[in-house]
Automatic annotation (TrEMBL):
UniProt record similarity statement: Belongs to the SbcD family.
Family annotation (PANTHER family): COMPONENT OF ATP-DEPENDENT DSDNA EXONUCLEASE, NUCLEASE SBCCD SUBUNIT D
Highest classification ranks of the organism: Bacteria, Bacillati, Actinomycetota, Actinomycetes, Kitasatosporales
Listed name of the protein: Nuclease SbcCD subunit D
Key words of the record: DNA recombination, DNA replication, Endonuclease, Exonuclease, Hydrolase, Nuclease
Chain ranges of the Calcineurin-like phosphoesterase domain: 1-217
Domain Nuclease SbcCD subunit D C-terminal as annotated: residue spans: 267-355
GO MF annotation terms: 3'-5' exonuclease activity; endonuclease activity
Biological process terms in GO annotation: DNA recombination; DNA replication
Function: SbcCD cleaves DNA hairpin structures. These structures can inhibit DNA replication and are intermediates in certain DNA recombination reactions. The complex acts as a 3'->5' double strand exonuclease that can open hairpins. It also has a 5' single-strand endonuclease activity.
Subunit structure: Heterodimer of SbcC and SbcD.
Species the sequence originates in: Streptomyces alboniger
Amino acid sequence: MRLLHTSDWHLGRSFHRVNMLDAQAAFIAHLVATAREREVDAVLVAGDVYDRAVPPLAAVELFDDALHRLADLGVPTVMISGNHDSARRLGVGAGLIGRAGIHLRTDPAACAEPVILADDHGDVAFYGLPYLEPALVKEEFAVAKAGHEAVIGAAMDRVRADLATRARGTRSVVLAHAFVSGGQISDSERDITVGGVAAVPAAVFEGVDYAALGHLHGSQTLAARVRYSGSPLPYSFSEADHRKSMWLVDLGPEGQIEADRVDCPVPRALARIRGTLDELLDDPGLARHEEAWVEATLTDAVRPDDPMARLCERFPHTLSLVFDPVRAPEDPDVSYAQRLQGRSDQQVAEDFVTHVRGAGPDAHEQAVLRSALDAVRVDDTLHEVAR
């Protein structure tokens, strides 16, 4: 059985100030064409269909168009909700849509109710694990502690229990939206940390033939049977070195896996350039970036006059301008942003306590800070769901 694994469409999202709707429409057309030309048996969409819980109308219309085109093609599609989606909104009409071969899986309680598709070698059971917010699903999965590893582990226990009731030789595929240990992050994913821990081990997916992951925006292989497709388009300059693609997975009669990458159309290359303004304007080696979307980091000790306008004369698609003046480490003018770079919210809060009090927080105080940060993030999630 041939599968096309994709995720993280983020319909409705822009790239800095650039509207990406046309690029997203081009990707949908590419997806449909690939499914047709490569004789795909099922399309897998591992969450974050939309960029936010209440997407703009144009994004909803594009999603509707994608569903109709996939249904017209006659290729079954299995799709889960991600942490950016409103599971309830995405799942509206799932029963009716399922009759057209588009199977939406947005209810955590139904994670062990597979979509069954068949080929010449027997059945394949597709299990959809939508994004599982630990604080919201811990009672459903009866876990003692609200954490990503606990709830996903409990969901996979249900999957394996159901699979054990199926006919001998039934192959299995799980779609999940999660941060799995070993995955490389980028700047455009929303933090899903709970209790200071977001990652789950890849071993949690043992017992199934393929785990089609979503959430991280870089295409990557964590194990032969555990892969992220990544986002089909870039949504931050940290993705400048990404190769945007989908996985074309051939699932053999005994569960063997062969996977190849299918490149996605990207509207414009990304480039991150760094140096003084004069260096960036004069360096002939940067000519290859003149038509790219550019993030320029200026290292001038003194901020130059009108830098964006001057950069745009050579790099007309400059979208981001960062100032990082070269100074000695002990220079008191080293920016606050630089001091915070790479530090988590928890670390920043603990640093603040240390700065104010002269001593860092003890273990109890660290736990209180972590609980407060988790509560704010869960409140934000609930607010989006309520919208």
